[in-house]
Amino acid sequence: MRKIISFMHISVDGFAAGPGGEMDWIHVDNEIFDYAGNQTDNADTALYGRVTFEMMDAYWPNAADKPGASKHDIQHSNWYNNVEKIVLSRTMKNAERKNTRFIGEHVFEEINKLKQKEGRNIIMFGSPGALHSLLQEDLIDDFWFFINPIILGKGISYLQNINSRVKLKLVSGNVFSSGVVCLQYGKE
Q1: Taking the domains of the chain in order of start, what are their residue ranges?
Q2: Average pLDDT of 55-71?
Q3: Of 23, 35, 93, 167, which one is least surrounded by beta carbons within 10 A?
């Protein structure tokens, strides 16, 4: 069975974004890109909520073609353009995009089918709203928390409205030179 792996940058106090959705506090550099890139290489599907998808789709399809594109921009742009993208959205049902499917209804059944399908892992980038829906149905297998060295005080919580406990076990941890810490947890 394929795994759904959630990648999320969070503040020390557990926010995925500031009160207005701002994410200018997130630190990402080549060291973090290389570390996370090992997981994207093992995934053939990206899973997003609508807001995160719109942000990603505005940048990644052409990132490799921009003057001065970094190694990461080229690699991730190529990956993004070739993987299947699943977007959880009730409002983008009929949008037409290459390698992209929108799921607005029967989310549990559709994601379960996706997990049963032959293939590599499914990576979910950000998307706190989509994560909340999938957590309610126990569909997330691994959590990668990229904890940024900042306290926001308020904002959009990464893990809110969770109705039941999810017992986790630490799989690995990594401290980056920037002070960002990645903790990888799997379900027990």
Answers
A1: 4-51+107-187
A2: 91
A3: 167
The pTM (predicted TM-score) of the whole model is 0.88
Q: Are 138 and 6 in contact (CB under 8 A)?
A: no
In this structure, are residues 51 and 127 in contact, taking their beta carbons and an 8 Å threshold?
A: yes
Measured between alpha carbons, how far is 31 from 99 in angstroms, rounded to an integer? 29
pLDDT top residue among 71 and 129: 71
pLDDT in tens, 99-142: 999 988 898 899 999 999 999 999 998 877 788 788 888 889 99
Phi-psi region of 68 (alpha: psi -120 to 50; beta: other; left: phi over 0): left
4-51+107-187 maps to which CATH number? 3.40.430.10
